[in-house]
């Protein structure tokens, strides 16, 4: 799929959302059910990025959600250690009085799995090419559960005071992380990537929120970071609703934002 066709697809989705929901969040009176929910506040969507990325990866998703009237917070995941990262994201949810949908990409999925725990206002979890660990599991362990990840040989480890950070070698960044994006774009992404602490990637997960909160999954079938087989395994045990995206890379929220937005909207529709 070309960038032009991606943008056209997202534009069509935005147009459909505008007609259905209204840019300001009001609903056109197409049915009694729509009218009944017109005054219901939309949930805040909390987006959590993973390792080797930052919140800008959500830009297209944010644009679509905001135009549909959803409040959005794209959390700046610290990427230091799983317990601490989850606590940081959880502190953001603490400040939100209304309903919340949490969306995690990659390692961000592990963060929301733990951060959502204990928050009654979290109504849905959406995993986008993401880890959904069970208690006692680590992201690194899950990544290797089934063959197919190209990440381990591509990692460049750089020590910092108190630990070690992992980067993706720029020479293989596009192939591993974002093969369906233009090379010009991925060269920039490789240069600006945010590393993840090895301690964070190997941190033990706690009791998972997906055991009590309904979940949705977006699984890109050409993911070279988290093999699709791993994602299907996690989705099945969580009882999640799955949408697979043929040929999409690990950064499916950038290459196919329309599909990611639709899955978030499906979570909203099912839990409101």
From TrEMBL:
Superkingdom in the source lineage: Bacteria
GO molecular function: catalytic activity
UniProt entry keywords in alphabetical sequence: Signal
Name under which the protein is recorded: Pimeloyl-ACP methyl ester carboxylesterase
Domain AB hydrolase-1 intervals: 45-262
Record's signal peptide: 1-32
Annotated PANTHER family: AB HYDROLASE-1 DOMAIN-CONTAINING PROTEIN-RELATED, ESTERASE_LIPASE_THIOESTERASE DOMAIN-CONTAINING PROTEIN
């Amino acid at each position: 799929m070309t960038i032009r066709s991606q943008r056209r697809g997202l534009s069509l989705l935005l147009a459909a959302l505008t007609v259905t929901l209204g840019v300001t969040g009001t609903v056109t009176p197409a049915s009694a059910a729509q009218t009944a929910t017109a005054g219901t506040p939309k949930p805040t969507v909390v987006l959590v990025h993973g390792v080797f990325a930052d919140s800008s990866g959500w830009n297209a998703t944010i644009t679509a959600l905001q135009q549909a009237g959803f409040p959005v917070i794209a959390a700046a995941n610290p990427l230091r250690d799983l317990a601490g990262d989850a606590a940081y994201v959880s502190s953001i949810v603490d400040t939100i009085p209304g309903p919340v949908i949490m969306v995690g990409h990659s390692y961000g999925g592990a963060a929301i799995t733990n951060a959502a725990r204990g928050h009654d206002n979290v109504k849905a979890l959406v995993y986008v090419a993401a880890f959904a660990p069970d208690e006692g599991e680590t992201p690194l362990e899950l990544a290797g559960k089934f063959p197919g990840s190209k990440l381990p040989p591509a990692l460049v480890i750089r020590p910092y005071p108190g630990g070690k950070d992992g980067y993706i070698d720029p020479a293989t960044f596009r192939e591993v992380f974002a093969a369906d994006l233009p090379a010009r774009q991925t060269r920039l992404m490789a240069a600006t990537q945010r590393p993840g602490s090895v301690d964070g990637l190997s941190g033990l997960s706690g009791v998972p929120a997906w055991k009590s909160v309904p979940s949705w999954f977006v699984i890109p079938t050409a993911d070279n970071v988290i093999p699709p087989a791993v994602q299907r395994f996690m989705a099945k045990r969580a009882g999640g609703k799955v949408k697979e995206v043929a040929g999409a890379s690990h950064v499916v929220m950038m290459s196919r934002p329309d599909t990611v937005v639709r899955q978030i909207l499906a979570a909203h529709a099912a839990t409101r």
